[in-house]
Write a structure and sequence with these properties.
This protein is of the alpha/beta class. About 35% of the residues lie in helices and about 25% in strands. Bound molecules: adenosine-5'-triphosphate and magnesium ion (MG).
Length: about 260
């Protein structure tokens, strides 16, 4: 069974100033454990897509199913990371990571052990008792990822999690995320503006058209995981990035 299925999903935001057709109709499916990257021009409906899958917003027509069930309310077996990390500044790092366990009322001692393990895997174990405002942007995103993974969700939804980071930190985050994902075997949807990041991290890349976003291309990324950063120089890797870039050039989004 597919982990996620979108069938002719369409979303219109209705407003007095004028309705906005934000997305679709769009159809695709994700296999369990797959990492799918979604790229597309700004405003094409990527964040909307993520919100529909998470059940944070309702679709206008079509159907979204997660683990075989139609999504009609916020799904719980999921970890979400947004561009802004949404950490609570008055809670320590470890207490931020523990938040989902508190909300779900699961065994806190076990959750605390898991939280420490994740912080260590993500390279921020030494900061467990600090506050978010004592951390750099990259470290904060590491904490946000740990929090998203705490309850071992079957799905991870990432909406441009690294776009506020400098290029070097971002590369490092790519490597870390890949390692964590390999051990978590979690179905992952990654929205990104970076073509390199999309190809490096995913098993498959969907290229979306301008708003209302539809699938322009669906590209398999055939390299085994885990991957070295130097893979980005491999001719086959470069070919895939070129194929994506050409879509953006043809859409007039990338000129040069
Ligand atoms: N809550 C909302 N109410 C009305 N319109 C909205 C709302 N959220 C998004 N939109 C509109 O829907 C369209 C798609 O927005 P969305 O945020 O999904 O795009 P995006 O692809 O994530 O863009 P970006 O790459 O800039 O993050 C945009 O035209 C946006 O203005
Ligand atoms: Mg967005």
């Amino acid at each position: 069974m597919n982990a996620v299925v979108l069938s002719n999903v369409q979303k219109t935001y209705f407003a007095a100033q004028g309705d906005v057709d934000a997305l679709g109709p769009i159809s695709f499916a994700m296999a369990p454990g797959e990492t799918l990257a979604v790229v597309g021009p700004s405003g094409c409906g990527k964040s909307t897509l993520l919100r529909l899958i998470a059940g944070l917003d309702d679709y206008t027509s079509g159907e979204v199913t997660v683990s075989g069930r139609a999504v009609s309310q916020p799904i719980t077996d999921v970890g979400i990371v947004f561009q802004r990390d949404l950490l609570l500044d008055w809670r320590t790092v470890i207490d931020n990571v523990l938040l989902p366990a508190e909300l779900k009322k699961v065994d806190l001692a076990a959750a605390r052990r898991r939280a420490r393990e994740l912080l260590s895997q993500l390279g921020v174990a030494d900061f467990a008792d600090r506050f978010p405002w004592e951390l750099s942007g990259g470290m904060r995103q590491r904490v946000a990822i740990a929090r998203a993974l705490l309850c071992s969700p079957s799905m991870l939804l990432l909406d441009e999690p690294f776009s506020a980071l400098d290029a070097l930190t971002r590369d490092q985050m790519n490597v870390t995320l890949q390692q964590v994902q390999a051990s978590a075997h979690v179905t992952t949807l990654l929205i990104t503006h970076s073509i390199l990041e999309a190809v490096y991290l995913s098993d498959r890349v969907i290229v979306m058209s301008a708003r209302p976003g539809r699938v322009l291309d669906d590209i398999r990324v055939p390299f085994a995981q885990p991957r070295r950063l130097s893979l980005r120089e491999d001719p086959e890797f470069v070919d895939i990035t070129r194929r994506i870039r050409v879509h953006f050039e043809q859409a007039g989004v990338l000129v040069g």
